[in-house]
Amino acid sequence: MFHILLIDDDELVRFALGLALEMAEFRVTQAEHGADPVIEQVLNSEHKPDLIISDIIMPEMEGIGLLMQLKQQYPDIPVINISGGGRVSGTNYLKTAEKLGAVATFSKPLDEEELIAGIHRILG
């Protein structure tokens, strides 16, 4: 069973997406924002995630900064970024994430089936 670390400050998105991922038979660990201590605990555990899904617009540490940190410290863990936009077009954030190493990006509202299909492609 693949392990996914899901990071999103929107509780409803985390709940719905976490449930969809669990129904697709993934093990899911959830974190509230880019500086959530859960992230470090999971990444330093024996059972590192196979994939990370992170929102971009979040308090504490935004997804772009987190992506750069993850790519530097854990280059073998693929990262998917998601965004519903913000001060600038969400598309711009997602393009930036792709340039910085995200293996895939998805706009909110998410098409959960499309996201799960993408995860299966990435994890093989």
TrEMBL record:
SUPFAM superfamilies the record matches: CheY-like (SSF52172)
Record-annotated Response regulatory domain positions: 3-123
One Pfam family named in its UniProt record: Response_reg
Keyword terms of this UniProt record: Phosphoprotein
Keyword Oxidoreductase: no
GO biological process: phosphorelay signal transduction system
Cross-referenced InterPro entries: Bact_response_regulator, CheY-like_superfamily, Sig_transdc_resp-reg_receiver
Signal sequence, start to end: none
SMART domains for the chain: REC (SM00448)
Superkingdom assignment: Bacteria
Alphabetical list of PROSITE patterns matching this protein: RESPONSE_REGULATORY
Residues where 4-aspartylphosphate is found: D55
PANTHER family named in the record: RESPONSE REGULATORY DOMAIN-CONTAINING PROTEIN, STRESS RESPONSE REGULATOR PROTEIN 1
Name by which UniProt lists this protein: Response regulator
Organism whose genome encodes this protein: Oceanospirillum sediminis
Lineage, highest ranks first: Bacteria, Pseudomonadati, Pseudomonadota, Gammaproteobacteria, Oceanospirillales
